[in-house]
Amino acid sequence: MKNSFMKGNKLRLISLNIIIILMVIFSLLSLGKYKVVTVDPIAMNVRTGPSIDFDIQSQVKKGDKLTILEEKNHWYRVKFNDNDTGWVASWLVSNKETSPATNIAAKINTPKTNLREDPTTESKKIATLDKQTKVTITKEQHGWSYVTVDNKEGWVFSQLLNVENNKQQEKDLSSETLFARQDGTKIRTEPSIDSQVLTTLGRGEKIHFLENDGDWYQVKTANGQKGYVANWVVSFGKPNKHNKITSIAETTIVLDPGHGGYDAGSLSNDERIYEKNVTLKTALAVEKELKSLGANVIMTRRDDSFISLSGIAGKSNRAKADVFISFHFDSSQHPNEASGTTTYYYNEKDIPLAETVNSHIKQELPLTNRGTEFGDYQVLRDNHQPALLLELGYMNNDGDAYLINSKDYQKKVALAVKNALMDYFE
Ligand SMILES: [Zn+2]
How far does the centroid of ligand 1 lie from the alpha carbon of residue 53, in Å? Predict the structure, then answer.
C-alpha cells in the first residue's frame, strides 16, 4: 500500500518533470519562430484586429521593432513597445514603400525645396519652401512625403525633410492649435484608448496643445477641459479634403479581369477586339494605381487563362477582401444600339460602395453613365466581401470599342477606381 503510493508519487513527479521540460522546449521552439521586423515607413497604424474594420489603437514609427506573433488574412499580430500587442497589415512591413495615416512634424532641411503635385520630379510645382519651414507629414510613398504646410499640401522628396524628435516637438509646438481630423475625435482622461471619453470633437474643431505624452497629446478643449488625444487623429494644420485619414494602404483589393482563356467574352463588331484582353489590360492598370498607394492587390488572373466563376468568388472570400471588383465590357443585341457604363452590385449592403465608385466613373470617364443597378452575377452572388461588377463600355459599339481599347481610357478607369476607393476608405 505504502509502496505503491510512493511509486505513484514518483511517477507523477517524473511525468511532471517531463511536462516541464517539454514546456520549456516548446516555448524555446516557439520563441525561435517569432520574427522581429523593423518598421520602415515613417509610420503605420496598429489596429485592434486583423482588418481595417477594427479601430486604430496606436501607431508605430520608423525604426520601431515589432515581433510577429501570428498571421491572419495577411495581417500580423505584433508585439511592440515592450508589452503592447495589435495588428498591422503584413504587406506594409514587407513592401516598406507606403505608410497609411501619419501625422509627423518635420522641417525642410534644404533651401528652395519644391512642393509638388505628385510624387515625381516631373510633376507640377505647387510652391517653393524655405529651409526650416515646418511641415506635417501625413503619408509617405516611394521615398516621397505628402505634407501639409500653411493650408497647402503636396509632395516633398523625403530626404529634404528632417523628422522632429519628440523633445524638439515639445518645445516647438507649445501654444499651438490642433484640429480634429475626423468627426467623433475622442478626448480622453488618460493617454490610452482604454480610458474614459471626456468629450468628442467634430471634424476641424480646435483644441489647444499642452504637451506630448508618447503617441498622445495632452490638450485643452475650447471650454477649458483638460484631457488626452491620440496624435494620429489630430493635425496642426486645418484639415481639408486631402488630409483626411486614408486607410487604403491597409486594404486588400481583389481585381477580376472578366473572361479569359477559351472564354473570349464579347467581341467588337469587326471581331478584332476581344473583351477578355481589354478586361485584363484595364485591371492591370487599376492594380498599378492601387499598389502605388500601398494596397494589397490580388488579381484573379494576370494572363490569358480561364478561371471558373466559383473560383473567382472563392479567391475574394479566402483573402477576406475589403473590396472585390470584376471588370467587364457590355454587348447589346444589335451592333451600335447601346453605349456607356453600368455599375452592378448584388447585396444591398454594397450600394454605398457602388454609389461611390459610380460617381467617380460618371465624373472621370468620357462615356455615358447608365448608373448603378442590381446584377445577379455569380461572382457577386458567391462573394461574401463587398463586391462590384463594372461594365465599362459596349464591345459592339464602334465608338465605345475604339475608346475602351485605348491606354488613355484604361488609365482613366484606373484613376477613377483609385479616387473612388480613397473616398470609400477615408
Ligand atoms: Zn463580360
Answer: 31
Give me the helices (H) in 50-203, please: 90-95, 166-173
Domain count, the chain: 4
Residue 255 in domain: yes
Strands 125-129 and 113-116, bridge-based pairing = antiparallel
Question: Between the CA of residue 32 and those of 67, 68, 71, 423, what are the distances in Å?
Answer: 11, 11, 16, 42
* 61-75 per-position pLDDT tens digit: 777 888 888 888 788
The answer on 310 and 387 residing in a single domain is yes
Residue 154 and residue 206 share a domain: no
What CATH number does the domain containing 398 carry? Answer: 3.40.630.40
Decide: 381 and 346 in contact? Cβ < 8 Å. yes
pLDDT of 233 > 80? The answer is no
389: CA distance to ligand 1 center in Å? 9
Separation of CA 260 and ligand 1 centre (Å): 10
Instruction: Give residue 294 CA to ligand 1 midpoint distance, Å.
Output: 28
* Cell numbers found for residue 153: 499640401
Judgement on whether residues 291 and 378 belong to the same structural domain of the protein: yes
Flag whether 28 is in a domain. Answer: no
- Rounded to the nearest angstrom, the distance between the alpha carbon of 314 and the centre of ligand 1 is 19
Place of cell 462590384: 388
Domain match, 266 and 407 both: yes
Q: How far is the CA of 148 from the centre of ligand 1 (A)?
A: 43
Ligand 1: distance of its center to the CA of 251 in Å?
A: 26
Q: What percent of the chain lies above the pLDDT cut of 70? A: 84
Ligand 1 ion: residues within 5 Å (CB): 258, 265, 328
If you average pLDDT over each of 178-192, 196-210, 401-415, which comes out highest? 401-415
Q: Is residue 334 part of a domain?
A: yes
Domain housing 283? 251-424
